[in-house]
């Protein structure tokens, strides 16, 4: 019981029913070994869904300028195994897990997938214990540094992908980029690109590389066609 109280202090959430936290920390291997009829996989499934809706809602409200594609990309980077493992490792979550002897010997308490799954199970437990509002406060508090860090390093300026997504929705599929000219010496060359949709020029741009020039052309096309 003391280990659960200690973990609640680290989590910043006090469970009304501490048994829910105990279940979230119980690995299936431990349940099988000790004849228990509960373990954390159902909570993990629930927590995964709760986590996704909370993060999606937060990103939707916080970043109104991002397209559906970029919102989806950012969400995926936040709710994936790596950041959840990072959160778990920071609080030494593995030391609170209930694992079978075999899992302990194979260092299951340090396995990224196991720890990430346990974070999701705890989120599911918080949701059942305190409801959606409590789960939302818990998740955003737990992942705030991860959200800020991920948003800061994400590259949302993939104008070519955004242009393609928007045009395909409108039924256009023939999108072509062309380098229409180059200027300057090889060590300091400037490229000029043009993007055409169904053979019609819709944007131009320049850059120090062909890729940059095409991105600038796509950016101008987005502005001309969609006001983006």
TrEMBL record:
GO molecular function, one term: rRNA binding
Chain positions recorded as Mg(2+) binding sites: 44, 117, 120
Domain (RNase III) ranges: 4-131
First-level EC class: hydrolase
Keywords from the named record: Cytoplasm, Endonuclease, Hydrolase, Magnesium, Metal-binding, mRNA processing, Nuclease, RNA-binding, rRNA processing, rRNA-binding, tRNA processing
Annotated localization: Cytoplasm
GO CC field: cytoplasm
Domain of life of the native organism: Bacteria
Classification via InterPro entries: dsRBD_dom, RNase_III, RNase_III_dom, RNase_III_sf
Keyword Repeat applies: no
The DRBM domain, residue ranges: 158-227
PROSITE patterns xrefs: DS_RBD, RNASE_3_2
Active site positions: 48, 120
A GO biological-process term: mRNA processing
Required co-factors: Mg(2+)
SUPFAM superfamilies: dsRNA-binding domain-like, RNase III domain-like
Gene3D superfamilies documented for this protein: 3.30.160.20, Ribonuclease III domain (1.10.1520.10)
E.C. no: 3.1.26.3
Catalytic reaction list: Endonucleolytic cleavage to 5'-phosphomonoester
Homology family: Belongs to the ribonuclease III family.
Role of this protein: Digests double-stranded RNA. Involved in the processing of primary rRNA transcript to yield the immediate precursors to the large and small rRNAs (23S and 16S). Processes some mRNAs, and tRNAs when they are encoded in the rRNA operon. Processes pre-crRNA and tracrRNA of type II CRISPR loci if present in the organism.
Protein name: Ribonuclease 3
Naturally occurring in which organism (per UniProt): Mahella australiensis (strain DSM 15567 / CIP 107919 / 50-1 BON)
């Amino acid at each position: 019981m003391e280990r659960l109280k200690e973990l609640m202090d680290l989590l910043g959430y006090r469970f009304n029913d501490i048994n829910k936290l105990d279940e979230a920390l119980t690995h299936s291997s431990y349940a099988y070994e000790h004849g228990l009829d509960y373990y954390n996989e159902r909570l993990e499934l629930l927590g995964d869904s709760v986590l996704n809706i909370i993060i999606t809602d937060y990103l939707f409200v916080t970043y109104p300028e991002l397209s559906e594609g970029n919102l989806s990309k950012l969400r995926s980077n936040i709710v994936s195994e790596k950041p959840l493992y990072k959160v778990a490792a920071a609080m030494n979550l593995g030391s609170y897990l209930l694992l079978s002897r075999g899992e302990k010997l194979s260092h299951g308490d340090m396995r990224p997938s196991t720890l990430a799954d346990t974070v999701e199970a705890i989120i599911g437990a918080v949701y059942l214990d305190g409801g959606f509002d409590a789960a939302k406060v818990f998740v955003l508090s737990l992942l705030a540094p991860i959200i800020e860090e991920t948003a800061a390093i994400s590259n949302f300026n993939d104008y070519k992908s955004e242009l393609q997504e928007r045009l395909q929705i409108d039924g256009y599929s023939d999108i072509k980029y062309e380098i229409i000219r180059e200027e300057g010496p090889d060590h300091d060359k400037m490229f000029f690109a043009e993007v055409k949709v169904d053979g019609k020029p819709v944007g131009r741009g320049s850059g120090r590389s062909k890729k940059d020039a095409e991105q600038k052309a796509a950016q101008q096309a987005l502005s001309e066609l969609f006001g983006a």
